[in-house]
Amino acid sequence: MIHKPVVRRRRADDDIEAAIAYYLSEAGVEIATNFADQLELTTRQIAGQPGTGSPRYGLLVQISELRHWPVVGFPYLIFYIEKENRIELARVLHESMDIPSWLEETE
Question: What Rg, from alpha-carbon coordinates, does the chain have?
């Protein structure tokens, strides 16, 4: 299995920082670290199998190449676009958000 390099867009970085800050303040270091670990694991899975992510939200916001994959054990979805030579992480959003509205800012 060939893994493409994963590049995070600025908004994905901002999303990740906000989620980790939330877990640090509300749940503690152990949960925040677990979230970061699961995020990394999920990112590796995406790098190895990018085509298996769901295109559901991408179709809703008319970004056909946009897919998402859940972060195991946490209510977050990683949104990404597979390019020829890399995977771009576009956003990392909580499942309870109005995801289509947040994704409209992705492109």
Answer: 13
Beta-bridge mates of residue 92: 78
Is residue 68 within 8 Å of residue 78, measured between CB atoms?
A: yes
pLDDT for 106:
58
Q: Are 71 and 42 in contact (CB under 8 A)?
A: yes
Exposed (0-12), middle (13-18) or buried (19+): which is 25, by Cβ within 10 Å? Answer: exposed
Output the pLDDT for position 53.
Answer: 95
DSSP string, 2-50: PPPPEEE-HHHHHHHHHHHHHHHHHT-HHHHHHHHHHHHHHHHHHHH-G
The helix (H) or strand (E) run that includes residue 92 is strand 87-94
